[in-house]
Amino acid sequence: MSPIDLSLTTIFQQATGVVQAVLVILALCSVLCWSIILEKAVLLIGLSRQTRALEKSLTGGSLAGLPANGLAGAIALAGKEEAEETKSGESVSERRQRIERAMRDAMYETLVKSETRLPYLATIGSSAPFIGLFGTVWGIMHSFAAIASANDTSLAVVAPGIAEALSTTAVGLAAAIPASIAYNKLAADFGSLARRLALAIGRMVRRMDGGTAPNGAAR
């Protein structure tokens, strides 16, 4: 007996229209998943580098060494603008809270933009197995109908149709597993980055209370 070809190309060519559509959808989901993973990984590397530069500048005795661009620059600029603004009757504590709030807003604005399309990974991770399962159920129904028409229940007749049906579940899992792992990892990394930046902002504001605004501007 000749071996059964279970390559995805052969399975796709022999599959019904519905199963083919499911395989195409899952392939597109997989491509989208990996494009988002690569994009966010590169973006996180850049943001982490900027955060380390911000933390390093805060270890010195002056804020003049703060990065002038990127995420750190946006935070420093927001703090500088608020520090230069004076409001009558404002206490030192209120001024500090206003400056810190402006810097945190700048931080979150950048991080929110950076996390765009990240929920797609969660959607793919949760829905891809069910899309694959739909293709499997449909393929098995079609296989049983073909078996009934052929009036033959031998393994050689049953196996190809069942293999075709189960292939959509396999492809669905192949798309869902990386998406779920990447979403959890990237979400945790963005959360850790936000906490590090929040601590750095707190230290920066305390330095400003000592008489220096970001980028060395006097209060």
Strand content: under 5%
Our Rg estimate from Cα atoms comes to 28 Å
Task: Estimate the mean pLDDT confidence.
Answer: 81
What is the structural class?
mainly alpha
Count of spatially separate domains: 1
Separation of the first and last Cα atoms: 86 Å
Q: Which overall shape is indicated by the principal axes computed on the Cα atoms?
A: rod-shaped
H and E string: HHHHHH
- How many separate helices? 6
Unreliable spans: none
For the biggest sheet, the summary is: none
The overall strand count is 0
**Helical residue percent?**
over 70%
Keywords: Cell membrane, Cell projection, Cilium, Flagellum, Membrane, Protein transport, Transmembrane, Transmembrane helix, Transport
Subcellular location: Cell membrane; Membrane
Organism: Telmatospirillum siberiense
Main location: membrane
